[in-house]
Amino acid sequence: MLLLSREDVESVLTMKDAIGAVEEAFRQYSLGNVRMPVRVSVAVERHGGQMLTMPAYVGGEMSALGQKVVTVYPENPTRHNVPTVLATVQLLNPETGECLALMDGTYLTAMRTGAAGGIAAKYLARKDSRSVGLFGAGVQAGTQLEAVTEVRKIEVAKVFDIMTERANQFCERMSKKLNIDARPAKTPEETVRGSDIIICASTSRTPVFRGEWLQGGMHITAIGAYTPDTRELDTTTVRRSKVVVDSREAAFKEAGDLLIPIAEKAFSPEHIWAELGEVVAGKKEGRASDQEITLFKSLGLALQDVSTALVTYKKAMERSKGTVVKI
Q1: Nearest to 217 by CA among 116, 119, 124
Q2: Which residues contact 141 (CB under 8 A, 6 or more apart)?
Q3: I need a labelling partner for 17 at 20 to 30 A (CA). Which of 24, 131, 266, 311 fits?
Q4: Which residues are paired to 85 by β-bridges?
Q5: What is the DSSP string of 19-50?
Q6: Which residues are catalytic?
Q7: Spatial contact of 282 and 39, defined as CB atoms under 8 Å apart
C-alpha cells in the first residue's frame, strides 16, 4: 500500500489533472457506469462538527474504486488553527479489492471541488467570460478560482469575505499565483455587479447576495452550503437560473439552496435542468445563449474523490512519491 502525505499529493496533482479526471468521472456517471451511495453523515454536536463517509466505484474506461472520510468543523480555523475540512482517501484495486493507497484527502478535496466548478464553467459560462465575483476567501475559494482560470481567460477577480484581512491576503496570494488582478470587494453588490462568473464558497447559512443584482449571461457556481437548512443563494437567484446539479439524488437530500425555495413553492423540482454529467456527455444542452443565467449547485460526490485519487496515485507511482508499507 502506498501512503501519500499532503506534501506528496500537492507535488503531483495539478488542477489540469483534476479537471480531466473529474470530467471523465461525471461522464461515466451519466452513462450509468458509477455505483455511488449517497454519503452518510454523522453529526458531532458537542464539537460543532460533522463526519461524512463517501464510497464510489467509477467504471467504464476509468475503473476507480475507493472511499473518502471527511470531517467539516467550521470553527476549526479560529478555535484550533486547523482547516475547516479534513479528509483521508482510500484507493482500492477494482479487480481484487486490495488497498492500493491511503492518502491525505484535504488538499485533494479542495482540488476536486474546484475541478467540478471549473468543468461547470467550461460548459455553462460564456466563452468570453473575463471577470469573477467570489464570495469567501478560504481554501475552497482558492481552488474554485484556480479551476475557472483553467477553462476561461479570467483577468479580474473581486473577492468579498466578512474577514477583511483574510480577503486582502487571499487577493495578494492569488494575484501572484494565477497572474490575474484579484482585488477585495467592499460589498456583496460590488462583488456581483459586472462579474461574468459568480462563485459562492462561503460558510454562510443565509444568502450572500440578492438575485435582483444578476444580469443576463452570468454563470453562478455555489459550493458552500451542503445541508437542507443552509443556503448561499436566495430564491430569486435560483428561480432566474438554468439549474444544473452534480446529482439530483444528492440535491434533493442536502441542497438547501434548492430545497428551501421548493418548500416555499417558488418552483417545482422540475426546475432543475440537468446533472453536470448529462451536460458533459452531451445528453443535455449547457448554455443555450449569451443571455441565459446559469447555475451549478455542487454538493460534492465520491466519484470526484476516487477519480482524483486514481490520477494522483498514478502520478505518484510514476514519480516515486510516497511511502510503501505493508499492513
Answers
A1: 124
A2: 134, 135, 159, 170, 199, 201
A3: 131
A4: 72
A5: HHHHHHHHHHHHTT-EE-PPPEEEEEGGGTEE
A6: 68
A7: no
How many angstroms from the chain centroid is the CA of residue 36?
Answer: 17
For the chain, how many residues are written?
327
Q: CA-based diameter of the chain, in Å?
A: 58
C-alpha cell at 22: 473529474
Query: Domains of the chain (ranges plus CATH)?
Result: 2-109+303-324 (3.30.1780.10), 126-300 (3.40.50.720)
State the angle between helix axes of 139-151 and 106-124 in degrees (0 to 180), rounded to the nearest 10.
40
Condensed to tens digits (0 to 9), the pLDDT of residues 96-150 reads 999 999 999 999 999 999 999 999 999 999 999 999 999 999 989 999 999 999 9
Q: Residue 245 has which C-alpha cell?
A: 446539479
Band the pLDDT of 203: cuts 50, 70, 90.
confident
